[in-house]
Amino acid sequence: MGSLPIARAFGYWDVHDHIMFLQDGRQLYGVYFEPPSHLHYTADDLLRRQSTLATVFDLVVPDGETLTTYTSLRGALDEDLADTRRYAQTCTDPALRELTEARADLLEQKILAGEVSHWRFFLTVTVTPPADARFEVGSTPAVQEVTRAAEQAQGLQSAAVAQLSAAGFAARPMTGQDVYAECFYWLNPGWPQAPQFIPQGERELHSLRRGRPDHLTFLRQVGATVMDNTESGGPIVGDRFVAVISLGRLPEYTETGYLAALTDTLSGTYYVVVQATRENDYDVSNELEKKKGDLWLRVKAPGVVPNGRATNLLAEVEAAQQLDGYESRFVAGVSVVLIAGSPQELERMKRQARGNMARLRAGVPIDYGYQSIAQYRALAPFAGGLSKFQFQPYTSSVVDLFPPVAPWKGFDEGAITFQGRDRSLIKFDLWTPRTRTAHWAVFAPTGSGKTVLALSVLSAHLTKYDDAILVVTDAKEDFRYFFKTLRDSQIIDFGYKSGNQLNIFDLAEGETEPDGTKLSAILSFVRLFVSEPADPKEADYEDVAMTEATMAVYHKFKNRGRWPQLSDLEAMLGTIENYTDSGKNMPAVVIGAARSVGIRLRKALGASPVAPFVDCQSNVNLHARRIYLNTSGIPEGDTLMRRVAHHIVKSVMWNRAKHSARATPKFFFIDEFENQIQSPRELGDIKDMLRVFRSFGVSLGIGTQDAQASQHFGGLMDSFNHLFIGGYSRKVVEGDERTPGVVDALSLPPVMKEKLPELRAVPGQYAEFALLVNLGGGEGRVGDIVQVEESKLALWLFASGKDEVAKKDAYIAENHGNVMDGVRQLVHDLYGAGR
Which top-level group of life is the source organism from (predicted)? Predict the structure, then answer.
């Protein structure tokens, strides 16, 4: 009893060639593994994986060896936000910098409160050499013996990695640094990061202790952290309070994903440790037969009154014998290790962990202070110890103790950091080499937080990519306040009361005639007013006529100092009689088609309400890097005017993509995207844009309330690598005989039928979305449930509700029209000094 350097209590010897050697002659190897995302497996899918997981235990764990899995939840660190703060520091836009710093502050507060964790999964397996090849710390081994032992363990390690990979896990062997780091974290739980491990061959003489050379041994590197075992509530390791809660028994019948119930809603620093030692099949058979014989005499022997308990035990033994030869038996135990910074935090974690265990039909959880000391030593990674609370399930139950699915960890680096529903950090970036395109889509019903999500993603990426170009089109004016705060931004309003005019025929400086993409866009624009005939032959004649007239009108206005406009095209259709490239006379049917198109095009000219906006010269110069194209001024039911605006929007986006440096990131976002696609021609235009956008460094985002609209997108859906799906109702998610549900319409994993209706949106706090990312390479879409949470400053800046806008406008007016000053004052008055 008392305080002692904790490293002395463990039998570590050294790490050689990534293998741990223990002082008693055994070796251990380790494997990091990542279970697949839980957004892809229903309960039925997990049951089907049981046989695959069983092979891991049967083939990886030989008789008498122990497999230990560690599900590690470690409290996140301030360093996890270092890249976000770095982006903010290098951002030249003060509004973006302030919004990003406020988002980082919000996440930092949650980290300091212990509400955010990182998940990590690894396993260790013991390797016990035969008696004639075993050496211990007391007898110095030859170099060949150590090398041979390490190679044998490495061979078993490679086989374990192969079996885990076959079972659907991303697995890799642990290096010497990994082995050292996991031991270090266990023995030094208060340290944020493990130092660099120094292998034996690189160690230098450090000092002389008691007249002997003192090398930097493995135990010395692990540290001399003091463990105080006098505290009745559990040991104190360094500056951390530790407790271990073990299952009092394992239930006879476990459930797939058993461990998920143990880790539900946990936050802070935890280890869920599962140990399983495989018993010899021959010894198990003999033991069962012996038990059956003893029980038979107490139950069925002549003249014996059957004992109720013995009768039940006999039935269990006979049932177990039926599994003999089919399933292996293990000695297994499950414990939860809690590491806290204070006694109060430890009590909170205990209550949560005990509550989770109570739901598992595993008896009363064993939680006693002095028991925690022994368990903390026995469960240490690579120490080769055994839990004192172990029971004897068969393979079918043991595989349920293995974590089959896990939270998605996101990317190694991201423009934005989300918090997952399980309180883990998920870094996300539209630009990643693991995806084919950077296009993204948001499908969410009204009131689910779609606008805040889009603005969060866009503002984060503009902060990281400081020179990026942004073009947004919006039909609800939700983005106006955001653009008002940006430097080098421009707002263009569409509608009958707007004075802004943009000519669809405009070309970039230096160009004299349209290329194929521009020509296709002009023809699509004309088709808004000239419907396509049902007869394909007549449609072809009209296309030829429009193409020739368009090229001719550009040639006519080549040196006139202005671009042609729609009335010029109408006039050309009425006079053209020759092909522009050869001068030959057009056939009468083509001339007739040209006259017909010109006559029908007349309804968009003259006194037509749309004429001032479609037959005009541009009166605005789109020079800013951040452009907001606002279509909220168009009446809701005016489909024609809305489609006119969308065609002009696509023209602006195309010009920005083509005439900006390819290395410059470009972010385009189209809200209410389903309004873009009303005809096969428009679908073809969008497909062409997406194909070209990838070459020009564009990330196109779309937002829509109606997931059914995606059925009109056709193959477009494959171009969107990142999907955000909001909380649709169960009826909309599942659909019916006439209308396919969201899951079928978007080709989502079947488990999403359960997940989507559960997504929550808490006004003023956060909104949940299912994030699915297509990584390609046969992996399909991966992802998780993310919580989109913004600072109060950002929420009020992004807010678009009627009452919120009225309050915001009043504060902005008080601050002389300065949006950021007004919103900042509003937040201060409502919440105090915080952001």
Answer: Bacteria
